[in-house]
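U., I forgot to send this yesterday:
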Amino acid sequence: MSVSAASHSGAAPYAPPTVGDAPLPPPTPSSQDFATILEKIDPSTISYASADLEDPLPTISQAHTRQVLDQAAQILRSGQVVGMPTETVYGLASNALDSAAAQRIFRAKNRPQDNPLIVHVSSLKMLRSMLKDNEIPEVYNDLIKTYWPGPLTLLFPRSSLIPNDITCGQATVAVRFPSHPITRALITACNLPLAAPSANSSGKPSPTLASHVMDDLAGKIPMVIDGGQCSFGIESTVVDGLRVPPAILRPGGVTYEQIRLVKGMESVQVYKKHFTDIAMEQAPTTPGMKYRHYSPEAEVVLVEYIRPSTSKQEQENGGATTAQYSVIKNEIKRMREEGKSRFGILRTSFNNSCASTASTSGPLNGISSNSIYCTSDPSVIEFPLGQGSKPEDVARELFRGLRYLDSQKVDCIFVEGISEEDEGLAVMNRIRKAASRTIA
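Result:
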């Protein structure tokens, strides 16, 4: 359980502990069963005074934060794994230079052995130390200056320091410099790069809350750090700048529109939109290319985006809401005839008449009850992802919505699609991977 600690004054830049001042020892169970530790950290207790990325050190203003980071770092240095928050989704971290530690990730998640892991660094100095010839390819200079730290992963030539288990035998390694203060400070505390896929059971919706990690992995891993809800809510954008032309292999928090404005990236292409590569899909260089992902237990049905009518009357009646919602209602009627009885809808477009009438009696599975739309039909639960015209809001709530509706034991989850502009490209990428069926 989390233990609070009073803030202390005179905070100094953080440095990894030496042997003499090491924190509590990590758990050393005789089997793979753990009494998983859950510790909460306030991200605001970690700060960075400088924007320099060469070798930055965090300043920590609370003793409890320092203690939790040191304990987690020692668990990681011992070859075990830790669930940690990032700005994208929660990650399951291990020492990226340790083959046995990487295998603990695969076992805890039940992850396919040919699905590569992304490596996270806390400095450009650390990045160079693990690259072939210790050099950052020039093609990435402007991308790094513009979007690191942040939700952007880049492919680099791999050195012999990186085990095959991390790259699944590929000649490249995917690396990210995260912006979340807890992630950055934990990597610094370990003084090691950390491999970290999403901290969920493989194939399930990615976790955006510590409670999601505990739902999937409690008893399978030693520790989870709770840093609150992830701000982006979907995984990082993956760019391969070693290809000609450069390619976005997975859309994410940094958009196609943003990347193509960066020098050297004007001709960037999006995988599955501008080109396909069957060989790369069978032997992927990055996660998210080969396997179905993000799927809850319930069936997921995507109702494709319907562009709002220019008709003034239809706009006043909700536009896309009316069209997509009508499709969903008709499909629910049809599925009821087949014996299905309980349904969820992830709303991305709605009018003022859809205001919540739910009570405010307390949270439901981490979700405030006044966030859930009541309907005249008690067998239908509507969860608002946000306006489809604000894809960044939809991205933040998507996985949380899928997990919530799944916890309500619905037979089917309908998702209203959104336009694939800006962050909408990443949102629709994730929904399509989760959906077993699409209605166009």
